[in-house]
Amino acid sequence: MKSLLDWIDHRTGIRSLTREALFENIPGGSRWRYVWGSTLTFTIFIQFVTGVFLWMGYSASSGDAWESVNYIQNEMTGGWLLRGIHHWTAQFMPVLLLLHLMQVVIDGAYKAPRELNYWFGVLLLLLVLALSLTGYLLPWDQKGFWATRVATNLMNLVPFAGPEMQKLVVGGTEYGHHTLTRFFALHAGVLPGLLVLLIVGHIYLFRRHGITPAEPVIKRDAYFWPDQVFKDVVACLAVTVAVLGVVLWYHGAHLGAPADPSEPFSAARPDWYFLFLFQFLKLPFFAGENEVWGAIYIPGMAVGLICLMPFIGRWNLGHVFNVGIIFVFLGGAGALTYLAKREDVAGPNSAKYLKAVLGDARDADRVTALAKGRGIESTALSLLKDDPKTQGARLFAQHCASCHRYDGHDGLAVELAKAVPLDELEKRTEMTSRFFSGDAVHPDWLARQSSTNEWQTVRSLLQAKAKGPFDVIASSKPKDAPEAPDLKGFATRQWIRDLLDPDKYISARYFGGTAHKDGDMYKKFLNRKVRKYDTEDHIMLEAIVVALSAQAKLPGQAADDQSDAVLIRKGIAYLEDDIGCIDCHAFGEPDPDADGPDLTGYGSREWIVDFVKNPEHEKFYPDNNDRMPAFGVKKILTDKEIGLIADWLRGDYFKLPADAQGH
User: Can you give the residue ranges of every domain in the chain?
Assistant: First the structure.
């Protein structure tokens, strides 16, 4: 073995290199404040290793990127751990770099002859931020896609060359496949290469000039080995434990819904380390043409001032100024980040932001379940776009919720179990919390808040707290009172049973407060006849309910319909002969004299689609021209969109076992 080591040393000189590295003199002895450089080198090494393995499973294509990341996260053995380590280590690196920069400035390690090494460190910080920015897009989810659009749009403000720079980075005028491939090339090739060169130069210059001792020097000089090595190893282990703890807590890293350029994302935000700049640009001074100051000039001057610190710090007063300005910058960035976070939960647009975040979480969970249960034939986005559970609800909220409700809401009810704890929502504004705790609040505040969307959202969320800490919904309740029935459970037995109850018919769930309570059905049948039915009549009415609901052929009650075949036949006979339904409704055969909708196939997919397309058709409401739009005839909705709404209402969509109780 000794001969082999001697041969290697003769060819490489490794013993002298190792001796020089381990026995470097540290003025004033080892210190914990010197560990930041080693932790950064360690985290960069971790990023390179995990990045290479992630590369093996990643596809840099707009049609496959999300799908490949989903495969890594949810299918590949240990993929979630690998991706989580890469993601969360990247989150730690800006913090470690800032701590290292603060240590260098406070200790005066930027002064001559170490100016070049200091500038290398500043460039390393900017490169790490650039790596984070380019990596943010690679999962190709809504959050990363729209945040990248926000960031790259700022390039357009660069004087003279802005538009051309933006086109170069984006890959043209549209964000898409070429944007992703350019960002991947930067993230996995160009920027890591530059990072390696800077690290080599940084270490070389550091070794050349040695460590600047922290004042006051109270300990004797020592070698790098073993004391400082021990401290560095402990610090690296602490970073490892912290990263792994977060990875295990979140089971990897977040993956939102697939990027959809046609659906703007109201919750588009840069990651936390750029959030201060995002908030800075929202200051009133930078509105309009002054935006270039907040995006380009002032940040550029700040970086320029940091680069000038070696010259400013030649004098004691200049060094004090440098230390002070670093704390001012960090304090300002921290304050702006806090304001940005606070606006998201208590600002004028917080309800919109929260709804977008929860909607993205819902879509992400759903498309992940679809990919796992059904596989991806084309793209994950098309899988989501063709899904009635998500798209039907969204279309209902956009086009139907002005008159109808779905369980009292607009159809976009989202469970908060994986999103935001109520305790966090309760802290959105101090006054809101005080109001709901019974404390007195100023009347002017109450009057001002009562009409805002935020108030409505917070109120519905907090009032739902009685249901349990997470069993709430974050869907907007439409402002106007419903003018048409609540369609949750439409055409089910219970829905029809309640519809034929005189009291429930004129309730808010069906036709309360509208002209329907004075209509023929209520006058001629419900109020006049049903209220007088005896027990035998109600048995007949129940058979009609079962028979009419069976017309819908709902997937959720197929087994019940099959087992109740005899009762259904009796109900059809009652419907046709022994009750007054066919006086106003057609059933079985068209009836041009019918006043109400044709009950043939009532609640079936074909019936709902035809009704939504043209409610004024002769088999529905030919004389009711001013209530419900003809969504198909007037080209408000496509046939596909109407079908998605129908399938969603009927619960006719792919379900996993855990999804069986969902709507």
Answer: 24-272, 372-467, 493-659
User: What's the burial of 563, exposed, middle or buried (CB within 10 Å: 0-12/13-18/19+)?
Assistant: exposed
H-type helices in 108-160, by residue range? Answer: 115-137, 142-153
Distance in angstroms (rounded) separating the CA atoms of residues 104 and 358: 42
Q: Look up the pTM and report it.
A: 0.80
Residue 123 has pLDDT above 60, yes or no: yes
DSSP state of 607: H
Distance of alpha carbon 591 from alpha carbon 617, whole angstroms: 13
Tens of pLDDT, residue by residue over 483-537, are: 788 999 999 999 999 998 888 888 878 877 565 656 778 877 888 788 888 888 8
Give the gyration radius of the chain's Cα atoms. 33
Nearest to 422 by CA among 356, 459, 458, 469: 469
pLDDT over 70, % of the chain:
82
**Above 80 in pLDDT, residue 330?**
yes
How far is C-alpha 640 from the chain's CA centre? 26
Please give the single-letter amino acid code of residue 610.
D
CA dihedral 244, 248, 253, 257 (to 10 degrees): 180
Sign of the Cα torsion 10, 14, 18, 20 reads positive
Class (C level, CATH) for 24-272: mainly alpha
Direct distance between the N- and C-terminal alpha carbons of the chain, in angstroms, rounded to an integer: 70
